[in-house]
Design goal:
The structure is a single chain. This protein has 676 residues and is of the alpha/beta class. It has 3 domains: 2-199 and 280-364, 2-Layer Sandwich (Nucleotidyltransferase, domain 5); 369-490, Substrate Binding Domain Of DNAk, Chain A, domain 1; 496-668, Rossmann fold, CATH 3.40.50. It contains 17 helices and 35 strands. A 7-stranded mixed beta sheet has the order 18-17-12-13-14-19-22, sandwiched between helices. Strands 1, 2, 3, 4, 10 and 11 form a 6-stranded mixed beta sheet that branches. A hairpin with a 4-residue loop joins strand 1 (2-6) and strand 2 (11-18). The termini are far apart.
Length: 676
């Protein structure tokens, strides 16, 4: 049996194509439900729960819970550790997929041997490859990885034959994608796609938790978020309150903590107002896509809503207000992706030739694929784009590589990159491959290198000399890639780049107690790790005001001692002031690279102002890395971070590890550091 699997951030679903009815049907889980929570719970007795049971444990604050791990797919980081074993997002996804497959097999009474699995359109090569591996780890074939908005459009197009250009607005639990699709009778053609893989319904849930907890703190001066089980209960409950606000004008939210009890009323208008910045973040993604394709809103016939989070009434209202287009809602909002994947699975079936002839599907890549090259003047490395973003997949580009006469090398090293920037360190360095087996007589050699995006959006590299294929072997990308930002004539070991680092610490009321102490310890370790003659540090505190606690210095003792001066509420109780302009002035004009590290655990009062300041830093070539604690606004941190993956979200107990990761990345030069 072949199925389609919507592997979601918060909920997942499985569907199959029913030949008798000629339509996709859902395969319910063991609870008789069409969707399954993407949650895994590790219990003290060694049991591991998945899905509905794990969600119940999460709401009760029982066990060690893993949720929203899809956001970490492909990065190799440890999401959860239990009983001496570490689990990555890929490991957890494999466990979830195994559970989904077992439940679907029971529902269908058949064995599943193949599955088409969906991913956010904006997933990169590593994330797609990890998803494919997770499926194959369950003992099934994964013939295709398909983009979630494309799957939704296939489900829609299979039922509607009218010629239309759709904008598929896919707001899931943890990711957001927008895709423009032309639907005609017999074909689904993706024109372009864009997205934000760390923006989703969870951010709206977090806004509810922040609303009620801030009210509770103001009234009782204790914070329910300080207790992990209580916080988890609130996070799970917030999803329910959000759903209530989709059908009611208000919801009453009770909180009981440390002997204090209160009920707070949240209206739909208040909810939409306090999450307007999240909606604006989706608007920016939409407009960026339209601009990149040279399209106007009048070119769009309909906006197709996809993903459970689009059930919020404010979504359709918001889209209608700024696009003027018709917004299409349907009963399959949560299921369209799984059903589209099921149709795709049938399309890829060996006995579905008639169906393939009746429907043709073409997709695009969300990221440009490039190769590390040397600029024409020979003074710097550049990202030479081989396959542009929004090119049809599969897509191939061939380039010739010349070895000059007299060069007797027997290997060629090729670095592939994903990203739009000309600067290599602003991109994701995907892989390193070594090409060998070519004939070199010292008289000059021409090698053809083929760069390929396959139909799954996964990158492949091939090489040949004339008609003879060459050996292409993958090797790990070096930990230290600072040399990509230097002079090609220098050896990698010769590259010494001065670093100017401004550490900005949130000193608002919510940092009181354990958070500020954890922050101080983590910053001390961070400074000691990076401390050398080439590195200067500055320390800046912010709240309702901004203060430079320590100017730039390479004296480790001075900066370490200044950390003790950080006091919560010394600059006001809130976070109305952005430290970015101040940090920009402190490190601006210094030779080498400029880096701003921001640590915050709340939502800033003047976000638009902070985003403008971040753009100024970007213009100056300053890298901003934003670390979020607690209920930090994930979308906002993503907006102020100036490089991909520059917005990091952590917990108090893992804050030291997060700073350690950043220190390692800075040392290796792979945080998009631009030398000025």
């Amino acid at each position: 049996m072949k199925v389609g699997i919507d592997l979601g951030t918060t909920y997942s679903a499985v569907a199959r194509y029913d030949k008798a009815s000629n339509k996709p049907v859902m395969l319910n889980n063991s609870f008789g439900k069409e969707i399954t929570p993407s949650v895994i719970c590790f219990l003290d007795d060694g049991d591991i729960l998945v899905g509905e049971d794990a969600k119940d444990m999460q709401s009760n604050g029982t066990g060690v819970n893993a949720a929203a791990f899809k956001r970490n797919m492909g990065d190799g980081s440890i999401v959860v550790s239990f009983n001496g074993k570490d689990y990555t997002a890929e490991d957890l996804s494999a466990m979830l997929l195994k559970h989904l497959i077992e439940d679907a097999e029971k529902a269908a009474g058949e064995k599943i041997d193949e599955a088409v699995i969906t991913v956010p359109a904006y997933f990169e090569d590593a994330q797609r490859t990890a998803t494919k591996r997770a499926g194959e780890a369950c003992g099934i074939k994964v013939p295709k990885i398909i983009n979630e908005p494309t799957a939704a459009a296939i489900s829609y197009g299979y039922k509607h034959s009218a010629d239309k250009t759709l904008l598929v607005y896919d707001l899931g639990g943890g990711t957001f994608d927008v895709t423009i699709v032309r639907v005609t009778k017999g074909s689904i053609e993706v024109i372009g796609t864009n997205g934000n893989h760390i923006l989703g319904g969870k951010d709206w849930d977090a806004a509810i938790v922040k609303f009620v907890c801030d009210r509770f703190v103001n009234e009782f001066d204790v914070d329910p978020r300080d207790d992990l089980p209580t916080k988890n209960e609130l996070i799970v409950a917030a999803e329910g309150y959000k759903k209530t606000l989709s059908i009611a004008e208000s919801v009453t939210i009770p909180i009981n903590y440390e002997g204090c009890s209160e009920k707070y009323t949240l209206t739909r208008d208040e909810f939409e107002s306090m999450t307007e910045h999240l909606m604006n973040a989706t608007k920016e993604v939409c407009e960026d896509l339209m601009d990149s394709l040279g399209m106007q809103w009048t070119d769009i016939d309909e906006i197709l809503l996809c993903g459970g989070s689009t059930r919020m009434p404010g979504v359709a209202k918001f889209l209608k207000s700024f696009t003027g287009r018709e917004v299409v809602t349907h009963s399959d909002t949560d299921l369209a992706v799984a059903k589209g994947a099921a149709i795709t699975a049938e399309l890829y079936s060996s006995n579905a030739t008639g169906m393939r002839a009746a429907m043709q599907v073409s997709d695009v890549t969300a990221h440009s694929l490039g190769a590390l090259s040397v600029s024409q003047d020979g003074k710097k490395y550049v990202n030479e784009i081989m396959i542009k973003r929004n090119s049809k997949v599969p897509s191939t580009c061939k380039k010739q590589f010349s070895i000059k006469p007299g060069n007797m090398t027997d290997k060629i090293e090729v670095y592939t990159l994903q990203g739009e920037s000309r600067i290599p360190l602003d991109c994701n360095v995907l892989a390193k491959v070594v090409i060998t087996g070519f004939y070199n007589d010292g008289k000059g050699v021409i090698i053809d290198i083929e760069y390929n995006y396959d139909e799954n959006g996964i990158v492949n590299i091939r090489a040949s000399q004339g008609e003879e294929p060459l050996d292409v072997k993958s090797e790990p990308v070096p930990d230290d890639i600072r040399w990509m930002g230097g002079d090609p004539h220098d050896k990698p070991s010769d590259v010494k780049i001065a670093k100017n680092i401004a550490i900005c610490v949130d000193l608002s009321r919510s940092m009181e107690g354990e958070p500020i102490e954890a922050a101080k310890d983590s910053i001390r370790s961070f400074v000691r790790t990076l401390s050398d003659e080439q590195t200067k540090f500055s320390l800046i505190g912010f709240g309702d005001k901004v203060k430079v606690v320590q100017e730039l210095t390479n004296d480790t003792d001075v900066i370490i001692n200044s950390i003790e001066e950080l006091k919560v509420k010394m600059l006001g109780r809130g976070t109305d002031a952005s430290p970015l302009d101040t940090a920009r002035m402190v490190i601006g004009g210094q030779p080498g690279v400029g880096i701003i590290v921001v640590l915050t655990d709340g939502i800033w009062g003047k976000r638009d102002n902070a985003v403008d300041q971040a753009l100024g830093c970007r213009t100056d070539g300053i890298t901003i890395i934003a670390i979020g604690l607690g209920e930090a606004d994930t979308s906002f941190l993503r907006q102020i971070a100036t490089v991909d993956d520059g917005a990091l979200f952590t917990t108090i107990d893992k804050l030291g590890d997060t700073f350690g990761t950043i220190a390692t990345a800075i040392s290796a030069g792979n945080m998009g550091l631009a030398v000025r």
